């Protein structure tokens, strides 16, 4: 229960900039594509699982129902993108470029930490012009599997698991309750699929199929669950 | 030098007909006559040492004209040659380390640091308007990502190599010969005992002191101060000065060793007679 | 796009509006209060480990008490990304000082004292607000003053700088919500000769009350201290016990035959 003046709507609900838009999409310009999204990553002992829905929308029109929001930054480093599709694509392109350059200069695979740091620098220094919430995850020989969350303002926080995008607000309780430390690869993958399918079922801006990516020293295994065989929904209760 | 004086030694932008760049060779000459700089890679860290000649009796030697500098938490360099040229390199090395950390959020790997320094030094050998650096740089660094320590040396020509032990300046040849006798190169270990047979930094400090004093001739050479730093397990891989008491103790030990060796030589000679 | 040294943009992008650009800037990822108090052997700082995202308690294990060098500590509230970049900046300066110091021997050099860091931070914050692009933080700086020769003095230092570059010193300080709720309590209990245990208990009590009354606070906290000889120590995050068993809380209040209540 909340007892304060904030309960009275501050903004006229008919105002164009706000109508029918969530906190993460209301900043979009008319016509700008948004990955009103559910994304997630869990690190386990020898790697990470990344997971995302596939819906890209413009307002309430589904512009792409089977997009891929899990992008590769380096051999063993990936990221989940949320926010503006244009912004996050540009960001991943830059980080991919810098990491490739660094790998050549140092002659060794870059750390996940470095990828997250680059992403954060770009997000922080251009925060006025960007709409990007990114989860960076991957495997490196120094730290093993790791996950970093880079939310809107360009902070960078390392965490055992991360969820993001508009749909994530619906599954915080579920994931908080089901997550445990030192999960196995299969446990982590199952939790990702379950949580993201629940978010997709309640968040209008998330939906379609689930894409997953399991990153370990051995390599990357991409997975796919079609929209009619999800662990839960889209209909549900 | 066959072609010197024929105009090919005026700038580093032109090769001589026999394929040499004299300005670089002259820059190397400048280093050859400067105080000896030594670097030793030991089992548990790196030791740097420089013989700093005391040009004047009234010099405040403790705080001025330093030859060993810290570049990053886990990286230090020793310079010899034109000290002012060396300081320019030190400044650049710090910028490289700082920029790398700011950009990537991890410490600069030793090899990258050495390469960046050598690229900078090399740049000054390319243009007619520039003068090559008359300084050689020894780079000691630790990489927290790989947990390895390493020693590199960048010469006035801009080349850099990694070493188990290296020396620059006056007396570098005999110094290298002395270093080859130390067990610092795991590939040359006879017992095949691996790293455990290599000397540690404590021993390294003593041995470097011994080398410096072996090469020193009090009757010919200027008085000098021995500057030493290390970067090892015991310092949590930070680059710091070797405690002064430790340097004096090593110096005492070195002098005694040298004296004893000389006495033995004298005895041998007497026996022969 | 460059990765230049230039500090970042404003706390959030401006909202689109019909007439010109509204520079509505507000923080996105925020930390709440920082508390600080001088005591017998130094300065004690306290803060919780929550970083909120709007009203969502998003990051529950984020550190806001950060050592800058061997004798200076900062604690920050407000925009977390700005705090990270301020801390990066101060640490970079500290490293540069270390590298360019006169002596190879750490014990012969003096790192920047807290008062210098605080003055510098004031200039940074004022500069940014003058560009209409503030760093959205209130930052507490703790440590010791220094003697004329640069050695650490016996006198503890405690100062704060806010997002527009206002800076002042005091014996007790609190930022954010703590300024309203904790500061009066701390002023009441404060004595310059408090022992560490006493000062620590005071800070924990205040953090607990803030957890009860601040929607953006958490009971997972950290305490940090700067002492003259022990230098800087930051605790690992730990959880405070809370109390919910007052009679009036336990007994039903909203049933029939009661006076109602909230």
From TrEMBL, chain A:
Belongs to the peptidase T1B family. Keywords: Cytoplasm, Hydrolase, Nucleus, Protease, Proteasome, Threonine protease, Zymogen. The keyword Hydrolase applies. GO terms for cellular component: cytoplasm; nucleus; proteasome core complex, beta-subunit complex. Component of the proteasome, a multicatalytic proteinase complex which is characterized by its ability to cleave peptides with Arg, Phe, Tyr, Leu, and Glu adjacent to the leaving group at neutral or slightly basic pH. The proteasome has an ATP-dependent proteolytic activity. This is Proteasome subunit beta. SUPFAM superfamilies: N-terminal nucleophile aminohydrolases (Ntn hydrolases) (SSF56235). It is found in: Cytoplasm; Nucleus. The keyword Nucleus applies. GO terms for molecular function: threonine-type endopeptidase activity. The active site is at residue 37. Component of the proteasome complex. It comes from the Eukaryota. It catalyses: Cleavage of peptide bonds with very broad specificity. Gene3D superfamilies: Glutamine Phosphoribosylpyrophosphate, subunit 1, domain 1. GO terms for biological process: proteolysis.
From TrEMBL, chain B:
Residues 8-30 form the Proteasome alpha-type subunits domain. Coiled coil: none annotated. It comes from the Eukaryota. Keywords: Cytoplasm, Nucleus, Proteasome. It is found in: Cytoplasm; Nucleus. One of its GO terms (cellular component) is proteasome core complex, alpha-subunit complex. The proteasome is a multicatalytic proteinase complex which is characterized by its ability to cleave peptides with Arg, Phe, Tyr, Leu, and Glu adjacent to the leaving group at neutral or slightly basic pH. The proteasome has an ATP-dependent proteolytic activity. The 26S proteasome consists of a 20S proteasome core and two 19S regulatory subunits. Belongs to the peptidase T1A family. This is Proteasome subunit alpha type. It comes from Cyclotella cryptica.
Automatic annotation (TrEMBL), chain C:
Its main location: cytoplasm. CDD domains: proteasome_beta_type_4. PANTHER family: METALLOPROTEASE TLDD, PROTEASOME SUBUNIT BETA. Keywords: Cytoplasm, Nucleus, Proteasome. It comes from the Eukaryota. InterPro entries: Ntn_hydrolases_N, Proteasome_beta4, Proteasome_bsu_CS, Proteasome_sua/b, Proteasome_suB-type. It is found in: Cytoplasm; Nucleus. Non-catalytic component of the proteasome. The keyword Cytoplasm applies. Belongs to the peptidase T1B family. GO terms for cellular component: cytoplasm; nucleus; proteasome core complex, beta-subunit complex. This is Proteasome subunit beta. The lineage of its organism: Eukaryota, Sar, Stramenopiles, Ochrophyta, Bacillariophyta. Residues 1-26 are annotated as: Disordered.
